[in-house]
Amino acid sequence: MEKREMLYEGKAKRVYKTDDEKLFVIEFKDDATAFDGKKKGTIHDKGILNNKISEGLYTMLEAQGIPTHFVKRLSDRDVLVKAVKIMPLEVLVRNIAAGSLTKRLGIPEGKQLPFTILEFCLKDDSLGDPQINEDHIRAMELATDEQVAEIKKYALKINELLSAFFKARGITLVDFKLEFGLYGDQVILADEISPDTCRLWDAATGEKLDKDRFRRDLGNVEEAYQEIFNRLDK
Hints:
Layout: E1 3-9, E2 13-18, E3 23-28, E4 31-34, E5 39-42, H1 46-63, E6 70-73, E7 78-82, E8 85-86, E9 89-96, H2 100-105, E10 112-122, E11 131-132, H3 134-139, H4 145-167, E12 171-183, E13 186-190, E14 198-202, H5 212-215, H6 221-232
Antiparallel strand pairs: 1-2, 2-3, 3-7, 4-5, 6-7, 8-12, 9-10, 9-12, 10-11, 12-13, 12-14
Helix pairs in contact: 1-6
């Protein structure tokens, strides 16, 4: 598989064309950002760990019937994926109050929500990825009603599968972000699932094992990412 010109560079990844128009290569970087890019830094070997963590989680989800863009990991930092057209939506799946939810609504961090909350954000860095609702999605023609219904169905199923997977490894899945894309007419899971995109707490101690350690200057950031990777094999 020949890696060709770069199509796009984001905060954490680069996307490249290949010699097959139906396939892309994604390269995971060590760059870290927070607060809409206001805080920047580097997490040593984050790209390697996130690539391997995503591989494990996407393989598990595929085996449980969730369609994803994942094809195979090519190297420590590179993964081969289907050439999807990313939908300009971020889907936030919340099980426990944390992050922006606590700031916006005053719910104490760590409060178990009575049911899983799904939220949508417009994927637009220049606007700060603002929160939107299904009427906005319809009015802006970001996705059809049928696609939104499919995204919600997949998001809840993914939450069920990931929550059980992490629980078996002593980890609480607090919340996480998903992105979806179109592969032809099919809605499929894209992007990554990693400590960059999830809030993951040790089930026994409540210790944060995710990007919040970088956001909040808690230290031991690399160790937290490594701990998540280590537990995937348990």
